[in-house]
Amino acid sequence: MNHSATSKDEPTIVSELNKGSKQAFDCLFDIYHAKLFLYCFRFVKSKDLADEIVQETFIKIWNSREGIDPGLSFGSFLFKIAFNGILDFHRKVARDAAMQQEMVYRIEQSHNHTEDEIIYKDLQRLSDEAIQLMPDQQRLVFKLSRERGLSHEEIATQLGISSNTVKVHIFKSLKHIRSYLQQNADFSFVLIITFLSQKR
C-alpha cells in the first residue's frame, strides 16, 4: 500500500488499519493531516493548539483502530473526534479568564480575512438577536455581567436579588444564546469560538 491512495480505496486502507497496519495509519495521516490542521486552526486560532488537537486525534484513531468501521466515512469519524477536542479546549477557555482574553486577541487578529469577518459579524448579529429575546431581568443580568463586567455579588446588590439567582440567570442566558446560534447560524461550529471567548 502506498501513500498515493485516495478516498476511492479508503475502506481498504481502514480495513488494513483495523489489523494494526502502521502503513495504513501513515497513509490516512498523509491524506487527512493538512485538512484536519486547517479545520482545527480555524477554531482555535493557534498553530500549536491546532497541531496538538490533530496529534491527539490521530492518537485516538490508532488506539481505537480495531473498532473503526471501514463501511462508514472515515473522514467524518476523524473530524468528529477532532471537533470533540475543539469542544474540550473551549470548555477550558470558558472557565479561564486569561484564556478568554487570549482567544479574543486571536479572533481579532484573524479578522483580516473577509470570510472570517463576515462570519464573525453574522454571529455577532445573531447573538444580539438572542439577547433581545431573553426575559427582561435575565437580559439585564447578562448585560451587567458581560458588558459592564460586574461580579455576581455586585449584580445581586444592584438588583436586590441573590447571587445564586444571578448565576442561574447567566447560566440560562448562555444556554439560550448557544441554542439560538445553533438553530440560526449557517456555520454553527464557529459559535463555539466566537461566543465562548467574547466578553459580552
Automatic annotation (TrEMBL):
Organism: Ohtaekwangia koreensis
Family from the record: Belongs to the sigma-70 factor family. ECF subfamily.
Pfam assignment, any one: Sigma70_r4_2
Alphabetical GO biological process terms: DNA-templated transcription initiation
Domain RNA polymerase sigma factor 70 region 4 type: 128-177
Alphabetic keyword roster: DNA-binding, Sigma factor, Transcription, Transcription regulation
Domain RNA polymerase sigma-70 region span(s) in chain numbering: 28-95
Highest taxon of the lineage: Bacteria
Protein known as: RNA polymerase sigma factor
GO molecular function: DNA binding; sigma factor activity
